[in-house]
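thought: fold this chain, then report.
action: predict
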Amino acid sequence: MALLRTREIEHLYSTASCAVVLSEVSKQYGQKEAIAPLSLTINPGERVAFLGPSGGGKTTLLRILSGQLESSTGTVLLCDRDLAKMPTGREVSQLVGMIHQQFDLVPNLSALQNVLAGQLGEWSLLKSLVSLVWPLNRCIGLSALARVGVEGIAYQRAGSLSGGEQQRVAIARLLVQNPQVILADEPVSSLDPARAGEVLQLLVSIADEAGKTLVASMHSVELAREHFSRLIGLRNGAVIFDLPSHEVTEDMLHDLYDLKGLRAEA
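observation:
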């Protein structure tokens, strides 16, 4: 049954624009340089994909952008705010949200309860605990599930869902969180090619509808070229190229993934 966009769920479709600015950002683990000092500006509403071999720094950079990992040097600005100076929790979750490779769903909870976890940053501890037993704000959660095409699985355990369904639930949870910047760490790497294209198109469409900035690390060069307007190549923690998708050549990609001179994966 179609769900109406009531005032209660209008925020799922609200537009928001936010720039991401990195200035001399680096990350070191002891003597190892995971990310060399780099500076990037990602414009509001832009679709950007990080490409590169395993261990090149893609996931590390996304974790820095999400606030999950502190950089060794430099600053990260989200919507003109210094990420390092913001308290974790609600303020950060309103600005940035991340989809991980493994979806991070709670297997024994329903799809609806997992989706509503996107609001935990706004809820009190008591309200969060109550929702574990009796899901609150069901209208918002059901609307988000309907938007990603899986409203029929709302009350099924997340652990019983297919990989494609779990990924759609993770996207619905992000819809409920409603951050201004969406980060995705190889969001379709565990899906077969047909479903990967469908899910990625869904994610891009949702970002476009709401004018949100989308940054993802991608395993598939073909999907990255098809769905993202800008490609950034990372190799050994350094930026090799940063170009519009149509300007990235096969020679550039060969150099990016060439095994010669590639450091061992961490």
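thought: worth noting. The chain has two domains: 18-79+181-266, 104-179.
final: tokens above.
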